[in-house]
Structure formats: structure tokens, C-alpha cells
Amino acid sequence: MRTVKVSDVMTREVVSVRPSTSLMDCAKIFVKKKVGSIVVVDKKRLVGFITQGDILWALTKKSIPDLSKIRVIDISRRKIATIKPDANLDEAIRKMKKLKFRRLPVVSGNEIVGILTIRDILTYNPEIYPELDELQQIKEETEKLKRISKAKSREYIHEGICEECGVTDILQKIDGRLLCNTCVALM
Questions:
Q1: I need a surface site. Which of 60, 86, 99, 181 has the fewest CB within 10 A?
Q2: pTM of the model
Q3: CATH number of 6-132: 3.40.980.10, 3.10.580.10, 3.40.50.300, 1.10.3720.10?
Q4: What's the rounded mean pLDDT across residues 171-176?
């Protein structure tokens, strides 16, 4: 089997902004492009990296309530872990695990040429890396346990008449009202 390189699976169309971009504009780009991170680039050179979490942090920690007055370079990470496009995919995964990052900018020379994400790796071939698949299963199981815990905390009445629609069904007590599953789902 041939060695898989980072350049084989990376996302080549990187969403980027200039250092002078406001956080408000950056937040709009996150929503429009449906991405989890944006690279900060000055003349094709990587100068920063920002995630959705960084914007949330700025909302809660910065004294300026208006995001349009804060420049992206003011809160972006400047020391950025990167990887080269000719690096082995196994090396990239080890680096991501060690640093606990979900994405790595791919840099050739001083230019950004792509970004490698966990999704890129799993989309390429999930069977190659069972540990990432195992990580996803753990995440799914954790979410499932949270849903079960939430369901157990609900008060179920065995059967009765729904106070919303009048149907006889198994009821749940929601906000002091007895509702059927259909009415709960429509809330």
C-alpha cells in the first residue's frame, strides 16, 4: 500500500481573511461558509488562525461589546502548528492527537496551501485509522448517555389525555402540562 500524504486528503480551498478583518465580518464568514476555522493570511503568508470558539471567547472576555471594532488579528492565535503537504498522514494524525487539534494548516514554504481536518482524514478512508473511528464512537456514546439521562429525568405518565391536542396517549409532564409525544416534538 502506498504512503498517504497530507496533500492527498487536505482541503485545498481554505477560507481566509486579512488581519484587519473585524470579528463581526469573520463571524458572518463562519456562518456563510459553514466552517469551523478561518486562517488569517497576509500576502499568502499565514499570520494567524481563528476558530468559532475564539469568537465566543471574545464575546465573553473582551470589554468592547461591538465585534465590528475588534480586529481578527487581535485575538487570533499567532503561534500555529502547521504541517507540510508532503508529510505522511500518520505523522499529521500523531501531531493532531498530541496537540489535541482538530485541524492543521498546511504550509509549503511560507504559503498556506490547504488545511487538514479530522473530517478530511475520515472522509478519505475511515478504516485506515480505527483510533479516530473509536474516538467518534466514544463521542457518540457520550451523547447517547446524555440523551438517556435527560429522558430519565422527564416525568412520564403512563396514559392519559393530552392537554394540547386531546389525544389519548402516553404523556410527559412538560412545564406543568401533560403532553403527548407528538405535541412535545412540535414544541
A1: 60
A2: 0.61
A3: 3.10.580.10
A4: 81
Q: Return the bridge partners of 155, or none.
A: 173
pLDDT for 32: 93
> Amino acid identity of 61?
K
Q: Measured between alpha carbons, how far is residue 66 from residues 2, 75, 76, 87 in Å?
A: 51, 14, 17, 41
Residues 6 or more apart whose Cβ sits within 8 Å of residue 110: 44, 45, 46
- Please give the Cα distance from 169 to 167 (Å, whole number): 6
pLDDT of 131 strictly over 80: no
β-pairing, 16-17 vs 37-42, is parallel
Decide: 5 and 85 in contact? Cβ < 8 Å. yes
Check if the beta carbon of residue 139 is closer than 8 Å to that of residue 125: no
| Residue intervals in the chain for CATH 3.10.580.10 | 6-132
DSSP label of 43? T
